[in-house]
Amino acid sequence: MKRQKFIPKRELEFVDEDMEWMRLTPSQRIKETTKLWQLYLVLGGSLDPEPDPQSPFYFQEA
Amino acid sequence: MTPNPILKVLSTFKKHNVKSLLIGGQACIIYGAAEFSRDSDFVILCNNENLQQLKKALNVLKAKLIYVPSLEVTYLERGHACHFRCKEKSVENLRIDVISQLRGCEPFEKLWERRNRVTLKKYGIVIDVIGLSDLVQSKKTQRDKDWLMLKRLVEDDIVLNKAHPPDDQVRWWLLESRNPDSLIMLAGKYLKIAKECLGDRPLLSNAINSNTQKLDLQLHKEEIRERQEDVEYWAPLRKELEALRHNPQEE
Which of the listed residues A8, B162, B187, B188 has the most CB atoms within 10 Å of its CB? Predict the structure, then answer.
């Protein structure tokens, strides 16, 4: 099989949504994440962190 | 009232003049690498006065200690983190983790000098957030999710600022990027700076030679090394925690 020559990408691949988010200012991002919190809480989301067994802080709460 | 419980924690900390910096997932949101996180992590100035202020803020949030060690200068100075769970209604069950040293990062005072501030006029809150380069450094842990975030933080910065970056920023990208394509692109565009960085990051020679395969392998090795260093850093601290857990009188 013919080996293909590696051609480095000149642009990183980000989808439009990523770019939109990145172009927001920090305060706009906080406003947007606040909207996500609103939805999350309305849907009954918990404030418990996700268990993370890889964390050095991982422990079973009593 | 804001539905964002993190803002409630931040405003309570501010109200009580707790000298702290937002780190972890919330800092990643501020820098554009994440959109949502339930983490509420802080690096704090470790002295008695600041801990007194922090305790007052935690009281308002009805935050209870959920694991060893207790919130004391002596434990924080040794590198331990303290963990709390809030019981106040608007932040019920939110966990707050505080630490005073981040492995591989400079002391709090330096982090404070390099911090960024975000003003939320609508909520009347000013957020002190860890600087981007310190956040990236703090993400070199043993956890997969931190490496994903680290990559994203650096790549976002490259994409957003690639038009006219100052040399220092290019140098930082070359030293921190974990994307072979980005490194090859940067080394091609900024060869002189890439060569200057070789001493600190020898794997850049493969970026200069456009050798993706070798570069990929060495990036992987670099990551494994950092993960191992993190495991070794935490090993004695975990041992100490186990002892404290089984013999609480030692506290």
Answer: B187
Which residues of chain A have a Cβ shorter than 8 Å from any chain B Cβ?
6, 8-10, 12, 14, 19, 21-24, 26-27, 29-34, 36-38, 40-41, 46-50, 52, 54-57, 59, 61
What is the ipTM for the molecules in this complex?
A: 0.90
What's the pLDDT tens digit per position in B224-242? 999 999 999 999 999 999 9
Please give the structure tokens belonging to residue B52.
């007194």
Give the list of residues 6+ apart from residue B65 with CB closer than 8 angstroms, or none.
B71, B82, B83, B84
Looking at residue B162, its pLDDT comes to: 93
For residue range B155-201, what is the model confidence (pLDDT) as tens digits?
A: 999 999 999 999 999 999 999 999 999 999 999 999 999 999 999 99
Q: Are B128 and B22 in contact (CB under 8 A)?
A: yes
Nearest by Cα to B145 from B44, B38, B221, B234: B38
Q: Is the pLDDT of residue A15 over 80?
A: no
Q: How many residues make up chain B in this entry?
A: 251
d(CA B150, CA B139) in angstroms, rounded, equals 6
